[in-house]
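Section 3.1: Structural characterization of target chains.
Under the original work plan, the team committed to producing a structural model for every single-chain target entering the pipeline before any wet-lab resources were allocated. The record below documents one such target. The sequence was received from the expression subgroup and is listed exactly as submitted; it comprises 274 residues.
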Amino acid sequence: MAVWAIGDIQGCNDSLQQLLSKINFEPSKDKLWIAGDLVNRGNQSLEVLEYLYSIRASVEIVLGNHDISLIAAYYGIKKSNETLDPILKSPNVTKLIHWLRSQKFLHVDYTLGYCMSHAGISPEFDLGMALEYAKRVEERLQRDDVEIWLKQMFKHGIERFNRDASAIDIDRYIVSSFIRMRFCYKDHRLDFDQKGEPTELLKQKGLKPWFECESRKDVHLKIIFGHWSTLGYYQDENVLALDTGCLWGGELTAARIDSKDVEIVSVSCNNSTT
């Protein structure tokens, strides 16, 4: 059995299938970890969802910001677009959306020594806190009154963690950190505006990648994340970043994480946009 983690797919099913062929993925014996953003922008978003649903017993998925936007579009909270419309018009839309709502914000495997979230884990959270807060918003996403809650999640992101804040503001911080985070300040405030690569100029302004933030709480597992195409593939002893810009003229990347040395395999994206 092999375990492979894959970065943001964003509706590029042809690239996904090419990558799975290249790594000789067999759903009957292998496992896939998907780091979120299954859909949007790529014109095969429906095909991606249908395929992953068909092998759901072999897949671990964490939700990304585009996946949450799809769920919100299903409930009429966000506008759809031409890449999401085929999903919303599919006769299987209810089944697929309910399946997405059952997915995680954080996946953990102590045996492999990895955890995975779309954007990473807030500098404010150790692993126990991250698991607790992920479970909290996962449960909210599955409740019958999810529409009311989701509307609140699309207000401006909460940049600072405050245990004494209102329940909805705490939820907004949790969700924003798991699906939108890239940079943070020295005091652990998150910045949701910067989308580019880390630069010396940003560093001079006090902005560092969240995983380099001073006094970040220990997680004790290596964190797999996507969400940051301008960062690209990056690995150190603490993190493994796998969004390599599929759709943006880049690649779709998989990392084998069940072996001593991480094996990296990529394919060029044939569904690029400008």
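The two ends are 38 Å apart (CA to CA).
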